[in-house]
Hints:
alpha/beta; 16 helices; single chain
Amino acid sequence: MTVMRYQQLAQTLRRQIDAQVWLPGEKLPSLRESCKQSGLSLMTVLQAYQLLESQGVIVSRPQSGYYVAPRQHVPVVHHAQSNLHAAEDIDVNDAIFNILKAGQDPDIVPFGSAFPDPTLFPQPRLARSLASAVRRMSPHSAIANLPPGNEELRRNIAQRYAQQGIEVTPDEIVITSGALESLGLSLQVVTQPGDWVAIESPAFYGVLQAIERRKLKAVAIPMDVQQGMDLQALEQALATYPIKACWLMSNFQNPLGCSMSAEKKQRLVEILEAHHVAIIEDDVYGELYFNGERPMPLKVSSYRQQILHCSSFSKCLAPGFRVGWVAAGAYASRIQRLQLMSTLSASVPVQLGLADFLHQGAYDAHLRRLRRQLELRQNAMRNKILKAFPPQVRVSQPGGGYFLWVYLGDKVDATRVYQQALARGISVAPGTMFAVDDRYRHSLRLNSSFEWNTRAEDAIETLADIVFGDIERSKV
């Protein structure tokens, strides 16, 4: 079996530690220093350090770096038979930034993008609503629309909750600058630096970044590609760690695309309620279902006052507008105060423009067209992958959203596939973006929202060639 570069670096460092080049308690070279010394990328060095940390050889200290562990150090993963992974220090921003930055080139096929195809949205109509709202703005609009945000927009959102049978008043809705702000404010209001948070594994990388910024500790709960969070593992985590909050997506999870059943959602809420754990629900893909009715969020439960339900218009209507919200329940006033002390408010003209668009009554018709397009494009990409890729490759089949999770097989390094694909004009999201360790190094996330044409089909063929080549390389 081919030894990966991060494993080689980890073996070198371990030999040095065993030879007492680095003594217990001594600080190791920083990630950037190791990059210069080894000639390896930041991500590769990070993976090596994380591997050694998971083995109990080294430990990380917040805002300080990595140190050789004491001789009797207990590994961070406490039970070998457990799928839980507990990380006391998250350090992923640099690696994620490098991957996202690489995919910004307009000439790149954007399978690694987190954003939907912008041509799917009613830009001219949105522009007219925005222009109309700006013309009607009063001199006092900036003050009147401070947190919790524009009243008409909050009322429109509350009406959509009511259509699902969820009791949410306009007063508990806070308009934010996109879902990431609503999620970040929610995390801040229910935790203090050093607290433990339960997250999904794999998780949306924004979760990892938010936890890193907030100086929190994470317990990663394993996910099933079809059924979502492992509730038995969640209960184990709650019995082991003093968890203050759980951040998750119950509908069309990013990156897996899975959704939890109604029964499993109810059981999840019961478990967290019994432990008095706040729930931060990221539901930005809930409107993008393919069949039947919109799947219910966790917010529908009787525990809803302790559930901070976060969503936005960025994935389903207006990606560039960056307007989201949090239905904050018991935390609404505290969320407002935090927002006033940070970003002050979401863009007032954009809030007014969205309120105008929703008032026109065209939103649901747009959503129906959008869902049809996303389903057609996802099916086309999935069928092509199944046809072109090696037979051991497995592809998820979500019931909504626009991501496919592709397991490439144990002999294929997704980071190497990402690097080779980028060199050939294609971006993908390697599985290492979605965890604090390398457990998803054999998987990719692909964005299926873009137009299915010859260019996209050729890009899938190219990816298949790269994967076949990586399999052959592993045999050498």
